[in-house]
Amino acid sequence: MSKTTRSLIAAAAFAAVSLPTLASAQELTIYSGRGEAFAQPIIDRFAEETGIEVEVRYGGTAEMAVLITEEGEQSPADVFWAQDPGALGAVGELFEPLPEEVLANVPETLRDDEGRWVAASARARTFVYSPERVEEGELPTSITDLTGEEYRGRVGWAPTNGSFQAHLTALRVLLGEEETKAWLEAMIANDTQVYSNNASQLQAIADGEVDFGLVNHYYLLRQKAADAAFPVEQSIFANGDAGNLLMAAGAGVLASSDNKEAAEDFVAFLLSEEAQTYFAQDNQEYGVIEGADNAGIEPNIEDVILASPPLDLNDIDDLEGTLNLLREVGLL
């Protein structure tokens, strides 16, 4: 029996008292920007626990946000489960405010200030590097250092990845539009290597293609769990740097939904002890409810919070502007 299965079974009793049992005739449609391998086990447990039939449409977070915006009130989606706050903010006006009992156990910094979406888990943006080819003095203290000549051709990034796009949206807020564009252009001029996602950057470092990458923290932790000798390490930039960011992956209920009660119950389930244990202990993301067990997850969430620049996640909602910027500089 896998660790995932054991933790889901062990927490089932909690979920049984935390969620109402709903009529099996109810149906729920979820648009998920979270990957199927990550999301489906929890969706299946929700369906088993409540008897609700769940249909899931998977896709990139930005893709799902654009689709929901285009569909508007005609969208068949009841819930949007996204991997970053930028996508959630982009469709925020289409969300129904969540009940206070759903929001209450999550810090205000990890939910919409109008209660329209809430984090289900959190991820830190980090830089990864090769401990075999990188000297201590070469470790960057700022994300803007990576445009330096000493990093030419040695850095990887994933411009089509939703988490990178959310981080870029944050950079636009923190640094301003012109400085962010200049950073992108300088990175391109510095021969930054393009990869499809976080995992491919890790592999590229292990294979010697590049020496650095910009990723979410949990990808390396999962790789290390499978192979403790995997030749990649990670760190965060200096305190207050725009390269550091604690990002929410969360969900909201569409105001156009005909199944709002079931949709709200699903969001509540994401914040149950069962789901939070799964996110943190099986998948190495940070749990977000009070008392979440984030032991053993590196970097430590308190260190990430301390290192992060002052930023309201509600301000990183201009996903379309970020996509336009990426197109303008030739990265999309």
Automatic annotation (TrEMBL):
Signal sequence bounds: 1-25
Family named by the database record: Belongs to the bacterial solute-binding protein 1 family.
Protein name: Iron ABC transporter substrate-binding protein
The keyword Secreted appears for this protein: no
Cellular component annotations (GO), alphabetically ordered: outer membrane-bounded periplasmic space
Annotated Fe cation binding sites: 218-219
Pfam family, one: SBP_bac_6
Keyword hit for Signal: yes
Single annotated GO MF: metal ion binding
Entry keywords, A to Z: Iron, Metal-binding, Signal
InterPro entries: Ferric-bd
